[in-house]
Amino acid sequence: MSLTRTTTPAPPRARADGPRPRRRMPGWFWGALLLSPAFLLVAGVIAAPIAYLVRLSFTDAHAYLPKFGSVGFDNYVALLRAPHFWDSVRTTVWYAGLTVGLQLVLGVLIALLLHQRFRGRGVVRLVALAPYMVPSIVVALVFRWLLDPTTGAYSWAIDKVWPGSEPPNLLSPNLIFWSLVAVSVWMFTPFIVISVLARLQTIDPSVVEAATVDGAGAWRRFWHIVLPELKPVLYTLILLRFMFMFTKFDVVYLFAGTGTEVRTLPVLTFQRIFGEARLGSGAAVAMVLFVLLMIFTTVYLRTLYREREETA
Amino acid sequence: MTTALHRLSRVRWYLVTGIVLLVAINGFPFYWMALTSVKPGTELFSYPPRFITTAPDFGGFQRLFETTNFLTYAKNSLIIATGATVLSVVVSALAAYGLTRFPFPGSRAFSTAILYAYTFAPIVIVVPLYGMFREAGLINSHLGMILAYASFGVPFSLWLLQPFFRAIPGELEEAAFVDGANRVKSAWYVVFPQALPGLIAVSVFTFLLAWEDYLFARVLITRDDLKTLPIALHDLYNASLQDWPLLMAAAVLINLPVLIAFLFVQKYLVAGWGAGAIK
Predict the structure, then answer these.
(1) DSSP assignment, residue A272?
(2) Is the residue at A246 inside a domain?
(3) Is residue A54 part of a domain?
(4) What is the distance in angstroms between the Cα of B240 and the nearest Cα belonging to chain A?
(5) Are B155 and B115 in contact (CB under 8 A)?
(6) pLDDT 10s digits, A87-113
């Protein structure tokens, strides 16, 4: 207590005045008051748009003209009947599934690596986390330049390692999906690394040491001690990251999304609205994403609360 | 003894290989970006590519400043990102303090709603926001962009800040009350300094969110003189002739503040992410 008092820079004079009589407002009043700006902002720029989105999805609204008429469920019916919508769903699931899987495996490996003690660890950690900080547009441009079929450094390197009759074109329609997966993994793995690393640091090192003394090899220590500790984090990460990758727009569109080869649901939404100017129809695609997000979030929150109750 | 030594050196070898691979894979694109920005035209398209340059040429940077409105775009980005950060951090710090100190009926529901809002994808929000902003006349305005980014920053910030505020013991504040401080003083002098790592982490996060965003800026801004850096860079890329040194010079300059900020606050960021982002 004495320690806290010395760190409190309250004016000493105030003490001599004694406790001043204060008008007391009930606690909930202050709580609501303090919360109101956040509430207004989130309600105005997130909740209201969602309500508006629902309405838009039942209209034939045009993206640029003031056309706005009700069409009932037409947008949804047309969407569910369109084969390219289902192609898009498939692409999105593949994209999210592959990128999350690869990110998890690589992320855990890198976190384990960075958890070791070695000289220059601080610098290596910075380099390991750096890709996460780069704007999507920069990532997209730099990798399109690196993978350029005629002058790209990576195209050249791949041709050296694995010489074919002609240099590979990793930006061609049939390969760009795989390039996009690689670029996305490069960009988003650091988030997994940070989360796993934070968890690793809370594992009691004496347990791991004891296992080492008992003769457990590195693999067994990982499998029987470290992995069970990481399980809740990994489960949360799978859910969160799947949601995140499923709805990822920026890097998908900027690196690969201007055509039809990699048309994930977010890209389809964007193309409908700003390419074809069909705001109502695009809103229906956005609604599909919204409903999926709600389901995922509900599942995620359930597990989060369950975990909290278990640890509490 | 020899087997133990042997095993140790094998582990060491794995470690070194892993570190070298990691640094090379993560670092090379940054190197290539910086290198391209200063490569003279004669080396640019050589095959095999040149991995160093002997005659650095800053023509890319020069053309960037002389032939494009780069400084205008940078100014827009700076205004919008700073505005969104200030608004978002103030609003979420107040709300986090309110939620942790004055629980009231519905505050738990609010927390849950915030979590839902956090998972909303930009692509879902931007569609109706475009319609609403068009009607409200907020297209092509700094204010509209600041509101949009701040509203995206708040859910994350609030979620991340709550554990920081909750971790500050109530006795600390009570001690301040005994010393005669009122609510506002105790919050300002006692609570907020304790929550500083969290506040720094969310400030950086919100700034980066606004600084790096492509989608909202693309949709909500159509005038050239209001463009932010990411959409300006994309438009330069889509121009008929791709001037790679110029593009990479712009990329370097967009990245620079990000990497510098990251260097200074990475400790807080890692702590913040560890504490709040992932339970």
Answers:
(1) I
(2) yes
(3) no
(4) 15
(5) yes
(6) 999 999 999 999 999 999 999 999 999
Q: Which residues face A62 on adjacent strands?
A: A278
Which residues, given as ranges, of chain A have pLDDT below 50? Answer: 1-19
Q: Domain range spanning residue A288?
A: 83-311
Q: How many CB atoms lie within 10 A of CB A46?
A: 24
Nearest CA in chain A to B234: A137
In this predicted complex, what is the ipTM?
Answer: 0.89
List the one residue out of B76, B37, B93 whose CA is nearest residue B227: B76
Mean pLDDT of the region B86-104: 89
Nearest-CA distance from B111 to chain A in Å? Answer: 11
Q: In sequence order, what are the beta bridge partners of A70?
A: A59
Q: Do B234 and A146 touch (CB under 8 A)?
A: no
Q: Which residue has the tokens 């799978």?
A: A238
Question: Which of chain A's residues have a Cβ under 8 Å away from the Cβ of B171?
Answer: 1, 4
Looking at the DSSP bridge assignments, the partners of residue A59 are A70
CA dist list (Å): B193 to B69, B180, B185, B186, B205: 40, 19, 12, 10, 19
Strand partners, A278: A62
pLDDT at B219 over 90: yes
Query: Could you list the residue range(s) of the whole structural domain that residue B216 is in?
Result: 63-277
Q: Is the dihedral of CA A112, A115, A119, A120 positive or negative?
A: positive
> What is residue A144's predicted lDDT score, i.e. its pLDDT?
94
Residue A38 in any domain: the answer is no
- Asked if the structure places residue A6 within a domain, the reply is no
Domains held by chain B: number: 1
DSSP H or E stretch at residue A300? helix A279-311
First to last CA, chain B: 43
Instruction: State the residue for tokens 């110029």.
Output: B246
- By C-alpha distance, which of B251, B12, B209, B173 is closest to B92? B209
The 8 Å CB, 24+ separation contacts for A74-83 are: A75/A280, A75/A281, A75/A283, A75/A284, A76/A284, A76/A287, A78/A281, A79/A281, A79/A284, A79/A285, A79/A288
Domain containing residue B195: CATH number: 1.10.3720.10
Phi, psi of A11 (to 5 degrees): -65, 130
Rounded to the nearest angstrom, the minimum Cα separation between B158 and chain A is 9
Structural domains in chain A (count): 1
Q: Count the helices and strands in chain B (H runs, E runs).
A: 14, 0
Q: Are B119 and A135 a contacting pair at CB < 8 A?
A: no
How far apart are alpha carbons A4 and A15 in whole angstroms?
16
Residues of B in contact with A237 (CB under 8 A): 278
Terminal CA-CA length for chain A = 27
Nearest residue of chain B to residue A288 (CA atoms) = B124
Q: Give residue-wise pLDDT tens across range B131-186.
A: 899 888 899 999 999 999 998 889 888 888 888 888 887 777 777 787 777 777 87
Identify the CATH number of the domain in which residue A166 sits.
1.10.3720.10
